[in-house]
Amino acid sequence: MNLFVANWKMNMLRGQARAFAEELGSQIGDRVGESELVVAPPFTLLDAARDARGRWSIAGQNLSEHAAGAFTGEVSAAMLADAGCRYVIVGHSERRTLFGEDGAVLSRKLARAREAGLVPIYCLGETAAERAQGRTEATLAAQVETLADDPAAEPLVVAYEPVWAIGTGLAATPHDAALAAIRLRELISARRDLRILYGGSVNPDNAADLLREGRVDGFLIGGASLKAATFAAIARAGSA
Ligand code: PGA
Questions:
Q1: Which pTM value belongs to this model?
Q2: Homologous superfamily, domain 8-13+59-226
Q3: Percentage of residues in the chain with pLDDT exceeding 70?
């Protein structure tokens, strides 16, 4: 079943989150089971973004690399699970580049997520410079190394998000997304339950084409996920 994840990043306030949840609920109505929907709001909105009917699940956008203790401002995996999260995003390119999260930090975050029973949505992807230098595959392989200690028997979601496509309006071509997904499946071949998402400027107009090659299992959606109707339209286009 295809998976569509709304990554709100640092956007929305409580009233907007509640309005989003109401609108998304009316958009999907009783049409459940065609695809899986997940909303990843800021921590303060986890409750407001929840669906009482369970038609979508909620996810953290980040988590602490530590389990508990004197880490002012951090949010633990156990706290996210306790708040009702099923998933947590790990290694988004904004965390890697703006907050300096490297493979060592991210492997500790993956371990904390597993201890709390959360399914990681592990993000990776090459920068424009790496792509220009023909280093896309090498970059993906290096980023996959971070998964080395993650238990192969557990379900895993990997989001291929080329950095140059995030928030730029310049999505990867369906062909490029498919090539990356094929390569990632080779690199992570030991997994029984692996879903590969594409992320980067997904919108209702390019969603169907990006999925048509049949190599990705859904999307991680930033900007276009802030409106419930647009998020629902992407999920519909991707489930057709
Ligand atoms: P975008 O962001 O859809 O706004 O490009 C995707 C992401 O960062 O997950």
A1: 0.97
A2: Aldolase class I (3.20.20.70)
A3: 100
